[in-house]
From TrEMBL:
GO annotation, biological process: carbohydrate metabolic process
One Pfam family it belongs to: Big_2
UniProt-recorded name of the protein: Peptidoglycan/xylan/chitin deacetylase, PgdA/CDA1 family
Keywords recorded for this protein, A-Z: Membrane, Transmembrane, Transmembrane helix
Domain NodB homology positions: 136-327
GO MF assignments: hydrolase activity, acting on carbon-nitrogen (but not peptide) bonds
């Protein structure tokens, strides 16, 4: 009886021991697996860190001009590198690391590789041509057309062998083909907005860009050419937009640049926007009242602007007599931006 009891006891102990060992063993295996996992993660982290350390920017600081480009590279990067700009209104960057200066200022371009950021300081400066190189250039600009008056303006430009830039609307559909004639004769077309309706275009960013895209498509359809140059109705300095949306010009002026457009204000006005239309003498006087070497002259070729048409030959004569070269704003280096007031 006693021997049997002892045997049972030992069997129980053996079972307990096996169970305990089994559990401990299980823990051991799990701990070992965890350890292996941790080691693998450590190894992977070390591998990534090494790759990140090997990757090297071609430059960590660049300076380019407005419209100038620079191709940044992240050397030794084996995987995907993504490029981004912290302020696309100052400088843009494409997926290959090509940076384009948009407006004067400072920003940072980041290359992102294996979740690590590689920052490049970017300074964008005005093109040298904007600094006074003494060369006299006049940019004749006409807003609010095309209209039947545009045909007369084109005749005068042609007769004088000079070119101008037209910031157009979509209002007068019957005169739309004059945009094509203007381009065929060597003039430039820019977008002014389709409707020129302050209340509509300045009520929201969406409205503005809907309208802008509409006029851009219209220009492309009629002339067969895309344009990247624009002029805001009322100029970027307008205050009328305050009535419809606070701060909208601050936003729009940055956004158009970030989208790859350039906007042009003027540094001399012919005064012909007033109603009723000023006299020929008044327009000619204001349009030539300057000593600047770079003149972006504001005029209008809406149908009500007969006195502008009549003053144009004198205006052209003045700039010719004073040694100015006539250029269009297309592909020009000049940037004429007003102070933003809203
Ligand atoms: Zn206008």
């Amino acid at each position: 009886m006693k021997g049997k009891k002892r045997r049972v006891k030992s069997i129980v102990w053996v079972i307990v021991a096996v169970l305990v060992l089994g559990v401990l063993g299980g823990f051991g295996i799990k701990a070992y697996k965890d350890y292996q996992k941790e080691e693998a993660a450590k190894k992977e982290a070390a591998r990534i860190k090494k790759l990140q350390e090997q990757a090297k920017l071609s430059k960590d600081q660049i300076s380019i001009e407005v419209r100038g480009t620079y191709n940044l590279k992240l050397y030794s990067a084996e995987g995907k590198v993504t490029w981004s700009s912290e302020d696309a209104a100052v400088a843009r960057v494409d997926e290959k690391g090509v940076v384009t200066g948009v407006s004067a200022g400072n920003t940072v371009i980041n290359a992102t590789y294996l979740k690590k950021k590689y920052p490049v300081k970017v300074t964008v400066t005005m093109p040298r041509v904007m600094q006074d190189d003494g060369k006299k250039v006049v940019y004749l600009t006409f807003d609010d057309g095309p209209s039947p008056k545009t045909a007369q303006v084109l005749d005068i430009l042609k007769n004088n062998g000079v070119h101008a830039t037209f910031f157009v609307t979509g209002i007068d559909q019957k005169s739309a083909s004059l945009m094509k004639r203007a381009v065929d004769e060597g003039n430039a077309i820019g977008a002014h907005t389709y409707t020129h309706d302050y209340k509509y275009v300045y009520s929201s960013e969406k409205n503005y860009f809907d309208d802008l895209n509409k006029i851009l498509n219209h220009i492309k359809e009629v002339t067969g050419k895309e344009t990247k140059i624009i002029r805001f109705p009322g100029g970027s300095s307008n205050t009328i937009s305050r009535k419809y949306s606070q701060g909208i010009m601050t936003k729009l002026s940055k956004e158009v640049l970030a989208k790859g457009y350039q906007y042009y204000d003027w540094n001399l006005s012919s005064g012909d926007a007033e109603w009723p239309a000023p006299s020929v003498a008044s327009i000619a006087q204001q349009a030539t009242n300057t000593k600047q070497s770079k003149v972006v002259l504001l005029m209008h070729d809406a149908n009500a602007k007969q006195t502008t048409v009549d003053a144009l030959p004198q205006i052209i004569k003045f700039y010719k007599d004073n040694g100015y070269e006539f250029r269009t704003l297309e592909n020009s280096d000049i940037i004429s931006h007003h102070h933003i007031n809203n």
